[in-house]
Amino acid sequence: MSIPEATLLPPAQIGYILDSSRPVLTHSRSVLAEISLTAHSHPRGQLLWASHGVMKITSEGTVWVVPSSHAVWIPSMVEHQVRAETETEMRNLYIDPSYAVRCEQSSVVMLKMTPLLRELILKLVKHANTLALDPLARLGLVIIDEIEALEGSEISLPAGDDPRLSHLIHYIINDPTHEASLTELAKMVGASVRTIERLFKAQTGMTYRQWRSRYRLMNSLEYLTQTTSTSRVAYELGYKSVSSFIAAFKEMFGCSPQEYLSKNDYRLPRSLVKPSHP
C-alpha cells in the first residue's frame, strides 16, 4: 500500500548553515501527500509550519498531527521526521544557534500560530533573496521575538506508529468529513474493529471517536478563518447541527467559535485564503 523508501526526500541543507549575521533562514517546499523527509537533526532550531495542508511530525517516539493553524518548534539537534499527510505548502524557518529561542524546551513542542507571525514568514519567504543583509537580519530578529512569544498548544493530536493505525489516520486526515463507519475503516486497513479500538487507546490515549472529534475541531480553526459563518463550518465538517458543533467546540476550547476568533484575533491573511467551492 505504500513504499516509504520511494518517497523519502533529503532534509534542507539550510538547517546546517552556521552564520550569526543571518539569524533566520527560510526554506519552502510544495510537497505531495504521503511524501516524507528522512529522519534528521540540524544545528539550527526550526519552526515548521505549513501555510496549507497537514503534516505529521515524529520525534523521540512521539507523533504530532499538525494542521496549518499550528506550528511545531524543533530545538537544535533534536532528531525528527516530517511527513506530508495532504498536499502541503511548507514554510520553514531556521534559527542560528547563537540566538536563544525557547530555551526552556528541549524537545518538539506544538504551538499556536498568530496572524502576525504568518505575515512575517510570508514576507521573509518572498524577499529572502532580494533584501539586503541588514534589513534581513532585523526582520529575522523580529521573527525570533514572535517565536519566543508563541503560545504552546494544549490541544495536541497524537498519532501512533502501527502501520494499520497510520493508514487509517491518513484516510481521516485526507477526508475529515468522511462518513465511513469504524467497521468499514478497519476492513480497509486489514484489521478488526476491536484491534483498531485497542490501537487508538494504546497509541494515542484516546478512543477512535475522541480522536476523530479532536481532529475535526482542530480542523475547524482553519475553516473559521475563512468565513464568519459558524453554521457553514459546522456543515463543512459534517456536524448534524450548528448547536452540536458549538457544544463540541466549547468543550474542547472553553469558548464558542466566535469568542475564540475574537480572543485570538484569528484571521488568515487574504493570501492564504483559498476560494470556497460552491
Shape: globular
SS summary, helix count: 9
Mean pLDDT figure: 84
Distance between the termini: 33 Å
The assigned structural class equals: alpha+beta
SSE order: EEEEEEEEEEEHHHHHHHHH
Overall number of strands: 11
Enumerate the spans where pLDDT stays under 50 for 5 or more consecutive residues. Answer: 1-6, 266-278
Question: How much strand?
Answer: 15-25%
- Major beta sheet, specifics? 6 strands, antiparallel
Instruction: Report the helical percentage.
Output: 25-40%
Radius of gyration (CA) equals 19 Å
State the main characteristics.
about 280 residues, alpha+beta, six-stranded antiparallel sheet, three-stranded antiparallel sheet, disordered C terminus
Describe the overall structure.
This protein has nine helices and eleven strands. It has helices at 115-127, 133-149, 163-174, 182-188, 193-204, 208-226, 230-236, 242-253, 257-264, and strands at residues 8-9, 24-31, 36-37, 45-48, 50-52, 55-59, 62-66, 70-74, 81-84, 88-95, 109-112. The strands form three sheets. Strands 2, 4, 5, 8, 10 and 11 form a six-stranded antiparallel β-sheet that branches. Strands 7-6-9 form a three-stranded antiparallel β-sheet, with no helix packed on it. Helix 1 (115-127) runs antiparallel to helix 2 (133-149) and helix 7 (230-236) packs across helix 8 (242-253). 38% of the residues lie in helices and 18% in strands. It has 278 residues and is of the alpha+beta class. It is globular, with a radius of gyration of 19 Å. The longest helix is centred in the C-terminal third of the chain and has 19 residues, at 208-226. Residues 1-6 and 266-278 have low confidence and may be disordered.
